[in-house]
Design goal:
Layout lengths: L10 H21 L35 H37 L1 H16 L2 H12 L4 H11 L2 H14 L3 H8 L4 H9 L4 H24 L10 H10 L9 H29 L1 H6 L1
Length: about 280
């Protein structure tokens, strides 16, 4: 009778499941729950800054509106912008970084020079200046703007990875068969970097979230609708810091943002433990 050997799950595999579930829960809370829960936007001036109760589990804001309802509806825009911004920056980085490393020569020099210039720019100050001048009118435009400002560091890392991969035998075989640049880059090289790209995509989401909340608090984007950053903007503008019972209104969006960031970064760390052979050996 043949023995059945069950592989012991690594530390990353044990951690990835719970953190992936946390990320999915927050995504469903922000995108699916609003389809079934009505948005409460009617002010109730007699219920200003109420403490948590059965009727209002997270209390109320400066207009007497339920904070939990705003938390449920406030995650959709911020997560959508983070995903789109990470997608834009990742596509730019892997496309131009891989092509530059594969082609080499002047193409590589030009792409690398542009990347080095972009890396020297103070991104936060540049983001504030661009947002103040352009005044984004939608969060989609904000996502594209954030994506265009955070691709440079990933491009250099992708380029370094491709420089080592393009000397592999299967890439040389594809080049000898004259399969074309597109096939070599997107069918031979990049599939071997799926885990690397996925991890950096998650980290790009966290960076985009912090950046958009920062400029929302500064009032450089539209403050209409519901958003965790907008909640902090109004908390600052309406003097919530001076009311003792407003602590729940201030902490709720902060804790929501922190929970999303913790879930994403922990999930990325778990994925790195799974995909990194050295970490697997020590688990």
């Amino acid at each position: 009778m043949s023995a059945i050997v069950l592989a012991r799950p690594t530390l990353g595999q044990r951690l990835a499941g719970p953190w992936f579930s946390a990320v999915e829960f927050l995504r469903l809370l922000s995108h699916v729950a609003p389809l079934f829960v009505p948005f409460q936007n009617d002010p109730s001036l007699g219920d200003i800054y109420l403490t948590p109760s059965l009727a209002h589990p997270l209390g109320t804001d400066f207009q007497g509106r339920d904070v939990l309802n705003q938390i449920v509806f406030g995650g959709r825009d911020i997560l959508t912008v983070a995903i789109l911004a990470a997608f834009v920056s990742t596509v730019i980085a892997i496309t131009f970084g891989s092509i530059a490393a594969t082609v080499g020569g002047k193409v590589d020099s030009v792409v690398l020079a542009i990347t080095d210039v972009t890396l020297t720019l103070p991104k936060l100050i540049l983001l504030i200046a661009v947002a103040a001048i352009l005044r984004p009118t939608s969060f989609i435009f904000l996502a594209v703007l954030l994506g265009l400002l955070q691709w440079s560091s990933l491009l250099r890392q992708v380029r370094a990875q491709v420089l080592s991969l393009k000397e592999r035998d299967y890439v040389e075989a594809a080049r000898s068969l004259d399969l074309g640049l597109f096939h070599i880059v997107f069918r031979e090289i990049l599939p071997t970097m799926r885990s690397y790209i996925a991890i950096h995509f998650i980290l790009a989401m966290t960076e985009a979230m912090y950046a958009q909340v920062f400029i929302v608090i500064l009032g450089l984007v539209p403050v209409s609708g519901s958003n965790w950053g907008i909640m902090l903007y109004f908390a600052q503008g309406q003097g919530a810091l001076f009311f003792r019972d407003s602590i729940w209104y201030i902490l709720s969006p902060i804790l929501a943002i922190s929970l999303v960031q913790l879930s994403l970064t922990s999930f990325a760390s778990a994925l790195e433990d799974i995909f990194n052979p050295r970490l697997r050996g020590s688990a």
